[in-house]
Design goal:
The structure is a homodimer of 350-residue chains. Chain A is an alpha/beta fold and 350 residues long. In chain A, 48% of the residues lie in helices and 11% in strands. The two termini of chain A are 26 Å apart. Chains A, B: Pathway: Porphyrin-containing compound metabolism; protoporphyrin-IX biosynthesis; coproporphyrinogen-III from 5-aminolevulinate: step 4/4. Chains A, B: Its EC number is 4.1.1.37.
């Protein structure tokens, strides 16, 4: 598949707001526990072992593309991947999530954070990308990174959090420390993402998964400056840039101001509602993944509605509003992809 | 304090959209673990024991009114309170939340659910209300209930949930069972709330805490019918009706259609943004409780902004955007209440 004559660039075109012959799609967390092949691998290897072995990681990344025939691959890894390189001890604990035993809460803690050198610190990520892009994929590979707020929330709380109390207390109570932390995480993100693009990633999704816990007022003051810097520095690399967060409907106006190409919506706001609110970027989303647990006619009805809204103007990519759940069936995702392609190519003609 | 000559009805007036000499306030979860007296009580008694002893429960309910000088009391109890009466085995597990060992997932499960008879099933709730209203409080007592979606989510999942997969799968996959369940929970809620009002509750807050997990499309189809019925049946009791949910900014248009008086906002959307979106009800909210962990000048600045937005038209009640966290200091809430009263009475004159 290294032959790029057959390269499928539908996803990239839609990202840039261009017309496409059908609606491209991919699914957040398309590689993972919903796939029997992945579950079998996980009996032999840990997440750490999979991501550190390029051949294995490329296989996991590629698998859903081959099974579902989606229009993009997303590199299999975790948003925590770059943190150990700057001195944050991350351990992924089953049933809990990422746990950090040296939380960052003071100016000294922030000053102690180092810089990332991708070639030295995460060569396995870059090798996986090269392998996929140069030899294996005929669809674009999406690289990604966690955004500074979301990463900071784990670093400050010491793990997953419900209310982000410590994070917000630091933000509001000690803005100097906060902005220094944003500055360092911003630099790390830029370096990390540029390395992914240089290795061959054809688009980048920034996951600010938990930033919906802030209101627009706080977003503008505490988050938007670093996000503006990140997107403006990434722009020179000339690949589509995607922004996504959960429960962040009240922040998409702010995202629409940033120099990015695609806004990913969770399922809370419809594509039509977002357009009515004046969102001009390409939209990506937004089937509630829970609907994939319902019978097919229910899925089909809802997918049609979403596609009809998405196709109302160019610049639309189908996705779920959140990651694939482990109990969603492979056959459902196969059928879903085929339906999206068929229904949208009929409507969009050619 | 049984003498009602000194009854403070500022909260009730604001609920009804009338002018008030100052902005009334109360705080969700104002009674609870943030208070040292409560923590001392909890060393001797369980939640179950406190809520089942009217004298004790009235004391816990009254304590924040006396300490903070807020303008309303809210009955100390749990949204799960009515469920055992209809046959749902609820156990509140520390560190987890409500756990239910007989989840409701089939038509048979739903048909098995009984009806609530408040005088027989929850006499302690009604006795607590009477004691507070007839003998102790000089501010309105707010009664409350969980809304059908939120209760159903615990009943179907068997406990707290992150993604509400089983709940949504039932809703989408088996609407007949879903609507039967909504019907039964609607009837229970109406009976339960009416009994609280008859016992003396002067206002009612309906907590649809987790309904923000649905989009407006699903809300209109699966939730709005039962909420319409609940509010229309409660209307005859002629007390202010308040609606609240977390992360539900995208649903407040739907709430604005319902026959209720007050919409409670979490901190994600500002009072001004909600007004700009066309929300006409009294608004209640919406300081992010995490800000109460920051130094006082930060709190004061944010509270002023919220008050200025709230006072732009009659029909505003100050509250937090979520419950008081256990680590928020009593002195902070005292100072907050005094500041709200002082600042708003200066601005509103009289």
């Amino acid at each position: 598949m290294s032959n790029h004559r057959n390269f499928n660039d539908t996803f990239l075109k839609a990202s840039r707001g261009e017309k496409t012959p059908y609606v491209p799609c991919w699914y957040m967390r398309q590689a993972g526990r919903s796939q029997p092949e992945y579950r079998a691998l996980k009996e032999k290897y840990s997440l750490f072992e999979i991501t550190h072995q390029p051949e294995l990681c490329a296989y996991v990344t590629r698998l859903p593309v081959e099974q579902y025939q989606v229009d993009a691959a997303i590199l299999y890894k975790d948003i925590m991947t770059p943190l150990p390189a700057i001195g944050v001890n991350v351990e992924i604990k089953g049933g809990i999530g990422p746990v950090i035993d040296n939380p960052v809460r003071t100016m000294e803690d922030v000053e102690r954070l180092g810089e990332i050198n991708p070639a030295e610190d995460i060569p396995y990520v870059l090798d996986t990308i090269k392998l996929l892009v140069n030899e294996q994929l005929n669809v674009p590979l999406i690289g990604f990174a966690g955004a500074p707020f979301t990463l900071a929330s784990y670093m400050i709380e010491g793990g997953p959090s419900k209310n982000y109390n410590k994070t917000k207390a630091l933000m509001h109570g000690n803005p100097e420390v906060w902005f220094k932390l944003m500055d360092k995480l911003g630099t790390m993100t830029i370096t990390y993402v540029k390395a992914q693009i240089d290795a061959g990633a054809k688009a980048i999704q920034i996951f600010d998964s938990w930033v919906g816990a802030l209101n627009a007022h706080d977003y503008r003051r505490f988050i938007k400056p670093v996000m503006t810097r990140i997107f403006s520095e990434l722009r020179e690399k000339n690949v589509p840039l995607i922004m996504f967060g959960v429960g962040a409907s009240h922040l998409i106006h702010e995202w629409n101001d940033l120099d990015l190409d695609v806004i990913g919506l969770d399922w809370r706001l419809s594509i039509a509602e977002a357009r009515n609110m004046g969102i001009t970027k390409t939209l990506q989303g937004n089937l509630d993944p829970a609907i994939l647990l319902a019978p097919w006619p229910v899925i089909e009805e809802r997918v049609k509605e979403i596609l009809d809204q998405g196709m109302a103007q160019p610049g639309y990519i189908f996705n779920l509003g959140h990651g694939v759940f482990p109990d969603i069936q492979v056959d459902t995702l196969k059928k879903l992809t085929a339906f999206i392609h068929e229904y949208s190519s009929e409507k969009l003609g050619q």
